[in-house]
Design brief:
It is a single chain. It contains 28 helices and 19 strands. It is an alpha+beta fold and about 750 residues long. The strands form six sheets. The protein has a five-stranded antiparallel beta sheet with strand order 12-13-19-15-16, with no helix packed on it. It has a four-stranded mixed beta sheet with strand order 5-6-8-7. Strand 2 and strand 3 form a beta hairpin. The longest helix is centred in the N-terminal third of the chain and has 30 residues. The chain is globular. The two termini are about 40 Å apart.
């Protein structure tokens, strides 16, 4: 059997193999393990892709509550030729591009939702990240380890880790994370000498810029930050190779700047939306919420120590477990090769640098994950933009990445060392299963009774670690069975695939039938599905009623726009002014006086909500929004943030009633209103105020005021006119220009570099 048949390609810069001649039996064993790993991987992916071929769509939690309604709006805009930057159906108007969660300018999203049915495009957006991540991780590890089976092992561990499967409901996060192995692979090509033909290096250079831009266009900058930490660790770990380290770091830094410019069409709107969001005014404690704790570290030794799998309620954010075999392999690597982890005076080999880099990155991520308790995270909160990220526990993704690297390296070393001798495993490997059993007993004895799992689930941890230890002993003797890779994949699948996000699917008719819709018609007025107060994260119903054509005055979103009408001071007056007709009866607002009970027990009716557009001369100026909201009266003066110049006494009420305003064009980010005004008046439109809006009459711009604290107002002159409002934020305009120029420059750079 030759190397090609065995699917083995050893990197000439890797010094992992400790024998000058690889025995045919060893090659056959490597090939067998690689094939089993591939089949196990493809089996897991096939299971994930099954709803796609059966006409079902993933709908658990955020998938239906947030992402699916946003994608439906996005797909409709692409089909109708409308702009998608402004989403009028959420929060009485919402800067969708600034939010970022739609990834609206990403080429893949544009292609999927323009060309495919909604449910197909949605499933593909979620699922394609996993094979992309898998093959990137496999290539990165194979380049360092020189063994296909070890590379596949590490790729399985990372792709189907507890983080990546339990965060299935956060598709943008997983999509950004999927870029990390590819970016590290491209940087590695540039950092290491003798990396192949010139075209490989050019491809790596262009790839760094394009991949960075792609990450930013996905609209989840927090995970781009995690990626930067991983990339910086790799650069520092390989700094100084061949005496050209500084030159290479400068090149990589320039390429990252190109990528930053490519993502400007998303990054600039996100920064603009952040300035108008509630997060810009939240207290510092909000950004330290939900760190990892020391108790969470026990998850390394058991997958089901509690009902929620974590020591808390937010399973997706706090999950640490990553399989029994990976933990044992990583411990074996560290205990057996401590002397190799020190960089000697001479140049270190690729594998040693990889181990040191991985351990350093893991310690940094662990330190940051403890939030305020660790101390280092406090410094991060001082940084611009990065300081506004929440949930310190999310950096656990880098711990999973590090464990995958160490597990793959440990497996490769064991397999290579066992070719010539029987390897002696550290005594710790025999102790870990007993530690797992001890942790399980402690969890059973001291756990919160309300969060205690069944004993059968609790015992899975010790069972998995005992079986894993037996398989490790076989590895040390040079014997590895077909069941090894299957056990590894099955362990991860049993943990991640049994979580609800990968279990709950529906057909599209089932999705619509599941909506608890209010009585009446969406044209009757807006709804409040549930009031979400950011500082306390009060319960919510989500945005899934948008799928039925309803418009919400509130909404569910990570980057909430600032609101004064729907907050702790919500009352019947603010609801009427917001144009709300129906309120979910299950929230903290059900006791508001004046609401009307209906035949549907889930919904309360708001009497006489104001129309979406109206004219008035009765105004009062209050610049302080907190004071202004207390003065709001549906039948009283309209509160504005600055003087209008309109005198309410100059026009009789009978004449005032002859004035009319009618919306004739109502498209996302583009509204036209026909006005017939008897004297100068204030037009009030209950569309959320944002600095990106412009107004004009007969192509002459007119200023927009804040009316009723949250909405827009314009002073219109006497006569018949058409008022045009357009959402054209400077951040989007500049972002498009910068991204387009960057794409041209990257293309020119690639062409010049490829010229012989």
């Amino acid at each position: 059997m030759n190397l090609k048949d065995a699917d083995i390609q050893c990197d000439p810069t890797s010094t992992l193999t400790n024998t000058s001649v690889v025995l045919p039996e060893a090659l056959a064993q490597q090939a067998m393990q690689a094939r089993v790993a591939k089949w196990a991987t493809f089996g897991l992916l096939a299971w994930m892709f099954l709803p796609l071929v059966t006409g079902r769509v993933y709908v658990w939690d955020d998938l239906q509550n947030y992402h699916l309604p946003v994608r439906q709006f996005y797909a409709q805009c692409l089909a109708n030729g409308d702009a998608f930057d402004w989403m009028p159906t959420l929060f009485s108007g919402f800067f969708l591009t600034g939010s970022g969660q739609g990834g609206t300018y990403h080429p893949l999203h544009l292609l999927l939702y323009r060309c495919l049915p909604l449910t197909t495009a949605f499933n593909l957006e979620i699922l394609l990240s996993y094979p992309f991540m898998l093959f990137g991780m496999q290539l990165f590890l194979r380049r360092h380890l020189g063994r296909s089976d070890a590379a596949w092992l590490g790729a399985i561990v990372f792709t189907f880790s507890g983080f990546c499967t339990l965060h299935f409901l956060h598709p943008n996060a997983i999509a950004v994370v999927a870029h990390i192995p590819w970016l590290l692979y491209a940087q590695d090509v540039l950092l290491r000498p003798n990396s192949g033909p010139r075209r490989w290096r050019v491809s790596a250079e262009v790839g760094i810029a394009l991949l960075t831009g792609s990450q930013l266009l996905l609209g989840y900058p927090q995970y781009v930050w995690f990626s930067l930490l991983a990339e910086a660790s790799l650069c520092l770990g390989f700094f100084g190779w061949n005496g050209r380290g500084l030159q290479k770091l400068v090149l990589i830094g320039a390429l990252k700047c190109f990528g930053l410019a490519l993502g400007a069409v998303q990054l600039l709107p996100s920064m603009a939306a952040l300035a108008e969001s509630d997060r810009a005014t939240l207290p510092p404690e909000f950004f330290f919420y939900q760190p990892l704790s020391l108790a969470d570290m026990l998850q390394w030794l058991g997958p089901f120590l509690t009902k929620t799998r974590v020591f808390g309620n937010n399973t997706a954010e706090l999950a640490v477990y990553c399989g029994a075999i990976p933990v044992l392999l990583a411990l074996t690597l560290i205990r057996r090769r401590r002397s190799d982890l020190k960089l000697h005076k001479g140049p270190a080999n690729s594998e040693t640098r990889l181990i040191v880099t991985a351990i350093g990155l893991g310690l940094l991520a662990l330190w940051l994950s403890f939030g305020r308790g660790g101390g280092l995270y406090v410094i991060q909160t001082w940084l611009p933009l990065v300081g506004k990220f929440r949930y310190p526990s999310r950096i656990v993704v880098l711990l999973h990445f590090v464990l995958a690297v160490l597990a793959a390296t440990g497996f490769a070393r064991l397999m290579n060392d066992s070719v010539t001798e029987q390897v002696r495993l550290p005594k710790l490997i025999n102790a870990v299963p007993w530690l797992s059993a001890l942790v399980a007993v402690g969890a059973w004895r001291f756990a919160d009774p309300l969060n205690a799992p069944q004993w059968t689930l609790l015992s899975m941890g010790p069972v998995l670690f005992f079986l894993g230890a037996l398989m490790m002993k076989d590895l040390a003797r040079g014997r590895v069975s077909v069941g090894f890779m299957l056990f590894l994949a099955g362990d991860l699948a049993a943990y991640g695939f049994t979580f609800e996000s990968l279990q709950k699917t529906k057909t599209w008719p089932e999705v619509i039938a599941s909506l608890d819709q209010p009585p009446g018609s969406p044209q009757d007025g807006r709804i409040v599905a549930e009031i979400q107060i950011a500082a306390g994260d009060i319960g919510f119903e989500g945005n899934d009623l948008l799928l039925g054509g309803w418009h919400q005055a509130d909404g569910y979103e990570g980057l909430l726009p600032q609101s004064h009408l729907l907050d702790q001071n919500t009352n019947l007056n603010t609801l009427r002014i917001s144009g709300v007709r129906w309120i979910n009866s299950g929230g903290n607002h059900a006791q508001i006086p004046g609401l009307i009970r209906t035949s549907n027990p889930h919904w309360l009716e708001v009497p006489n909500p104001l129309p979406r557009v109206r004219l008035t001369t009765n105004t009062t100026t209050i610049a302080d929004f907190n004071r202004a909201v207390l003065q709001l009266q549906p039948n009283g003066p309209t509160v504005v943030d600055r003087e209008t110049g309109i005198q309410s006494t100059t026009m009789p009420q009978s004449a005032m009633q002859k004035s009319t305003a009618k919306i004739v064009v109502d498209r996302p980010g583009h509204i036209e209103i026909d006005i017939s005004a008897v004297g100068p008046q204030l037009l009030v439109l209950s569309e959320r105020f944002s600095t990106g809006w412009t107004a004009s009459i007969q192509d002459s711009p007119i200023p927009i005021l804040r009316a009723e604290t949250d909405f827009m107002g314009c002073v219109v002159p006497t006569g018949d006119h058409t008022l045009r409002l357009a959402f054209e934020p400077v951040s989007v305009k500049n972002g498009r220009l910068i991204s387009a120029l960057a794409m041209i420059m990257v293309s020119m750079y690639a062409a010049i570099r490829l010229i012989p």
